[in-house]
Structures are given as C-alpha cells and as structure tokens.
Amino acid sequence: MAGLQKSFIREILKVTESPDVISFAGGLPNPRFFPVEEIKEACSRVLKEHGREALQYRTTEGFLPLREQIADRYALHGVHVSPDQILITTGSQQGIDLVGKIFLNEGDRVVLERPSYLGAIQALGLYQPKFRVVTLEDEGCDVEELRSQALTGLKLMYSVPNFQNPSGISYSVSRREEAAEVLAQTNAVFLEDDPYGELRFRGVRAASMRKFLKDQAILLGSFSKVVSPGLRLGWIAAGAAVMEKLIIAKQASDLHSSSLEQRVVHRYLLDNDLDTHLSRIRIAYGRQRDAMVHMLDTYCPTGVTCTRPEGGMFLWVTLPPGISSMNLFNLAVKENVAFVPGHPFYVDGGGDSTLRLNFSNTDEARIEEGIKRLGRAMCRLLEQGTPVTRPSAK
Q1: How many structural domains is the chain composed of?
Q2: Of 155, 270, 357, 374, whose CA is between 20 and 30 Å from 276?
Q3: Mean pLDDT of 126-149
C-alpha cells in the first residue's frame, strides 16, 4: 500500500465542484441520457413482483437472466460466450481487480499501453507487478514493442481496444490480428476492457480480440456507460477454468454484487429497447466530439493537436514539446476550466505535454466556452517562454 497513490482524477474532481468550473476532467457519461423514469419503473416492478428474492443474498455468479441477456448481446457482435462464462461484478473496475488477484504475483510482468487507463494502473499495481509498456499508435499498440515484451515472460496484457481511455484511439482490424498473433505464441492473458464499444458514432465496429485469442482473452464489460454508472454493475467473460478462480476471488471480496440492482437492470432491458437508447447517446456524443475538435482547432495555438476518435468519451491533446500540461492545469483552473494532465496515465514517466479531455458530459455551448478558456490558458502559458502562433480564426 505504501507505493500506491490516490487517484489523480478523483482528486481533480474536488476542484471541479464549483458550478463556475467547466470540467472536461471526469470520465462521465452525460446524465441527460440516464433513463430515470425507466429505471424507476423497473425498480417498482421488481420490488412488487420479486421483492423478497431481490432483497435476499444470491449466488456469486449473478442473476442468470441478466447473464443470458449479456451473452445474447455479445452474440449480436459475433462473440460467443455462454451465460456460465459470465460473472457479474460491481463495475468493470472490480473485474480488473479480480483478474489481478487470481493471476498476478509480485514481480510478474504486465504490459500496459502507453498511455493507459489510470484505474487499471491502480488496480493491478496493488499486486506489485513489473509494469512494461508498449507505445499506443494511431492504429493500436506498437506490435514490434509487444513482440519484444513477449520474450521476457509476459504474464498479462491489459488493453482498451475500442476508444481507449485516455486517448480515444481504437485498434484497427489488422493491428488486432497482428497483436493477437504475437500473444498467441505466449501463455499471457489478454485482458480486454470494453466499456465504450457500444458508443461508436461513426465507422464500423471491429471484432473483439476473443475472435483471435479464444479463451486466452478475458473480456470486461459495463453498464456504466450505456445505462448508469451509479448502478455499479459490470461483468467478466472468461473460460471455465479461469471463471472458477474468479468466482472464488469474488466470494472472498464481496460475496456477490447487488441482487436488487441486477434484477432492476434485467427488467429495464426487458421492457426497453437498448439500441434506441444507445442511438440517442451516440448522436449526442458525436455532436459533442465534433464540437470539441472544432473548438480546439479554432481557439488553441498552432502546434496543439488532438486525436479524432470515432466513438467513446475522450480526446487526447498533445501540446508543443516542452510545454507542461500540469502548468497548463494550474492556469486553466484560474480560468474556471479543468482537464486531466497526461502524466498519471504513464507508468514509466512521460506524458508531460499531454492531457485528456472528456466531451461526453458537456453540451456544445459549454464545450465552446470551456475550450475558449482553455485556449486562453494555453496562449498565456506559451507566451511565458515560447512565441505563440495563434490560428487566424478566433
């Protein structure tokens, strides 16, 4: 525990509690699309029809009809897992922790993307592995770097192939195949975290890594981004041998995830069309992403670049060399705008000139005002040591 740090993002969120602050910091879905009335109706029906069962202890694996719904959803996307291969978890974050618990001993080699999801760094770091990194390029991880890491006794690789947190980058089909070819020659577990895959607003969905790696891949999923993060429901899909150990680990952790909330989500999915709900979210997020990219192009100094994801919730911004995003953060807070500096997403140092922006939780008007403020802070920072070239459009 002595070597672990508080979540940098959780600490930043304290800064954003003022209503005057426009925050692009949290990885938050837009609450405008939370199905409040539908969940209220689902709660009412569950308590009326199955109240005593819903309020009782249940099995660790989770509510079978909900696991069947998850398996059916996977099948629509060409991923074939049985309900018995699915374990309901308290958010997909618990899934990362459980995988670390059953696989990792102190000193085991774990590969992360560079940059990588901060929550995974925290959860896996608890088991004291030796982190190794592979550079995240425009189409996915650097395969030659992965090949090099695979020669060193790799135990596990953690990845977010769809609209990665923090970068927004997705693996191309060819990069998935190449990475799978390397991993298939090892005994390493591939932990595929996919909280954002359903949030694609343009382009074509790519196959899960399970297509190439079979049971060597463990899948994580979540209802947080598609229904509500407050419900704290996710799942793990894994082969039978791994699932047995995951169940034991979860029994030792919390016995089972909320049986009431599992039944509520099951009822919600029965009574409502999830694809109609997702369609509204995708349309809105696509507009918000486009607005943020356009405002960055308009209000930020020349030399500032960003990723252009086809889905998800995040943009990754790169500042000119030598410009610190932590220094920018200190100036931006004075302008009442917040983001997450890039450094915490790197386990090997680096990322000083990068930052993450969340576009999903802010409407277009506030995105424009927030990026205006951020652009002013960028210009002020650059003027302190570097001549500023401003774009012609302001």
Answers
A1: 2
A2: 357
A3: 97
pLDDT tens for 237-255 read 999 999 999 999 999 999 9
97 and 13 share one domain: no
Same domain, 353 and 207: no
Considering the domain architecture, whether residues 348 and 316 belong to the same structural domain is answered as yes
Residue after which a domain boundary falls, among 226, 247, 271: 271
Look at residue 387 in the predicted model and tell me its pLDDT.
43
Mark whether 369 and 220 lie in a shared domain.
no
Q: Is the pLDDT of residue 67 over 80?
A: yes
- What is the Cα gyration radius of the chain? 21
For the whole prediction, is pTM greater than 0.90?
yes
Q: Is the peptide bond before 229 cis (omega within 30 degrees of 0)?
A: no
Question: Do 30 and 113 lie in a common domain?
Answer: no
Residue 208 lies in a domain: yes
Res 204 pLDDT > 60: yes
Q: Cα–Cα distance between 302 and 8 in angstroms, integer?
A: 28
What is the extent of the structural domain holding 200?
56-271
- What whole-number distance in Å separates Cα of residue 282 and Cα of residue 200? 7
pLDDT in tens, 70-128: 999 999 999 999 999 999 999 999 999 999 999 999 999 999 999 999 999 999 999 99
Where among 271, 299, 333 does a domain terminate?
271
